## 1
Amino acid sequence: MSETELSVICKNCGSEVSPYVTECPYCGARLRKRAPKLERRGDGLEPKPRRGSPGRFLRLKLRARTGAHAHRPYATPAAILGSVALLLVEQASDASPASLGALTVPVHGEWWRFLTAPFVYVDVGYLFVVAVGLAIFGLGVERRLGSAATAVLLLACGALGMLAASAIANAQGEIVVIAGGNGMALGAVAAWFALRRAEAHGAVDQDYDRVGVAVATGVLLALPIFESTADVFAGLAGGAVGGLAGLAASVLRHDVP
């Protein structure tokens, strides 16, 4: 790092960050093993020049490139593309949502529908809103937690949201069809908010757009007003699961040195 370098670019998310941190505050990627050593020059502190061989520089560059590929998102695009594929099949074959895995209440022992129902949609509008929410917030979660953890998180938010919606519908004696990933998307928003809030806590110039988060949450919560298969309790339960998972992950990430 040169003496005149005021910032560095994170190779994982492309953000401009301080040259004195070891991890990117936006995506959590490791920038270096330790912060640069400082030495007093005149009235201030400046980074101490480091010398290294060309071979060491190439090794560090290769390691950073490998780390960037390791954080490439797969779970969120797979959730969106899987829903798109099911909707295309439904439109092409004129199949009913129940035949493709939507949750029908009473369940009658078909528990697998809790896992498939969040990926079933009856129209493009519903899918578009959820896909935008996942693309914005799900990818942010995945860059921080990885694909495997994000896949489990999205499935848990969707399935537990459907379980809560089914339990309430059963208690009210209703016969309904519930489908769509509003609980999954709200879970991604809540998890991202918990992680991002923990990153910004006590940091300088690390604020985030709370209005944008509130607008996205409001739109997803309002989906049951316009979509008959969207359920408000599925959304609330999915959001609660995502928020708790995000809080737990932020604590664990903070404790890891």
## 2
Amino acid sequence: MRSNKVVVGLTGASGAVYGVRLLERLRAAGRETHLVASAAGILNVHHELGLDRHALEALASKAYSPADIGAAIASGSFATDAMVIAPCSMKTLASVAHGLSDNLLSRAADVTLKERRRLILMVRETPLNLAHLRNMTAVTEMGGVIFPPLPAFYHRPQSVDELVNETVERVLALLGVEEAKPQSWNGL
């Protein structure tokens, strides 16, 4: 990684644990994190994990309001290595796919794409409709990575925590974080 800065977005899709665990692991790996969480994301963090806004923001090096469209992460001149939206709602996916940039979360994703930096969207929805699939295709064609947090069972996980960790470690590996520890599959 070049700048050791990663933007982390968190939306209202179920799976707030992925964003929280990602922030924890990036901190442990010595990365500077820039968090922007939507209002629905904050609500979901509270419902799923019992954390409030302050507890979530304390996990990041710097946190921004989605309304702060003039924040540093809204500019391509602010050097970052990547952005991960974990979890990513279908609303945010659509906003990114269509370049709406109507809030800081979607603007930061747009900047990440235009600067040819790594953008990973941990999309959370099922079943998928045609609009979801087309939006995923559009983001992929723009250079983004669609990474639904699907569990792997090769390593025989014993808990939900192990499933979450495995998925987050795979994202860290995609980011080039040398400290990532994804489980390897040795075949059946």
## 3
Amino acid sequence: MYVLIAGGGKVGSNLARTLIRDGHEVTLIEQRDARYAVLETEFEHQVHKGDATELHVLERAGIKRPPDIVVAVTGDDEDNVIISQLARDHYGAGMVIARVNDPRNQPYFDLLGITPTVSATAAIMALIEHEVPEHGMIHLLELRKENLEIVEITVGEKAACTGRPIKSVPFPAGSRVISVVRNGKAEVPHEGMELEPGDSVLAILEPGQEDELRRMLVRE
């Protein structure tokens, strides 16, 4: 597999190192002089100096082949958007993965259809939410292409759904309960199954329906 990585910081260099160790072909692009000098000592001809938002730099690095995967992990979200768009739309890269440094910029990546994206901040927040029950709802997975997400939510003591069969609970339109974890055991729910306080419910739904689901499963 041929992977082109734009951005030779810690993320990009560690990724390149791991891929090379696993036997993949890698080209790394870095524009900072001092950082490039460090990378060249280790990666030699596999690292190219230049701005990966410029066509001649990308082409010199071999993007015309095209790569199986292009990874845009610079420290600038605007650059990552440009690199991703060029790789996908201009050069037909098989897959593009982009880093989102500031979670507030995620909507711009979504609007342009740049997916999948990776955000360290979002990943850490997901871990924090998993460990802090007060959050009530944990976002497990976002399926941006399908405009869906999978969440985990714990049924409250006095929730409106308590003691009611799943088929009679007015969940948000288009949502679906895919699993119920009770006493540490996961079950595939059936229509007659009644929800109990403390149940962990895994549901798939459209973004924006979280509050409606929370009202039904958590709030009184």
## 4
Amino acid sequence: MWRGIIFVGVIMAAGTLFVLDASLPGGFVHGSGDVPYAQTMAFTTLMLFQIFNVFNARSDDRSAFAHLFTNRWLWAAVAASVTLQVLVVYVPFLQSAFGTTPLSGRDWLVCVAVATSVLWLREASKAMRRSPLPR
């Protein structure tokens, strides 16, 4: 259990910092945004990491895709969370309160692509754990 938690935490930290770095000029990956844009990208990526990880957290051993649609409350919570994030990014008074800036469709795709890594990497670790091959 603890290995899984640490593994997921490292993935989320690395991915969020990568997006933050890639959204600013200079750094390891050259970006062209300003600080509020980079913060919005990092905030959105971290939120999406949590959304994808909620499916991993249902079991330490079973695939996140097992019985994926059996919990309607979970899907309602995911929909509500994503809706609230969209509101924070696009509604002016919420932008002011949270210090966010609007993101483009491409920006959302980058955030989603990075955030899904927690799902795929955790799925791979679960599959290796279930494998009958010696480790």
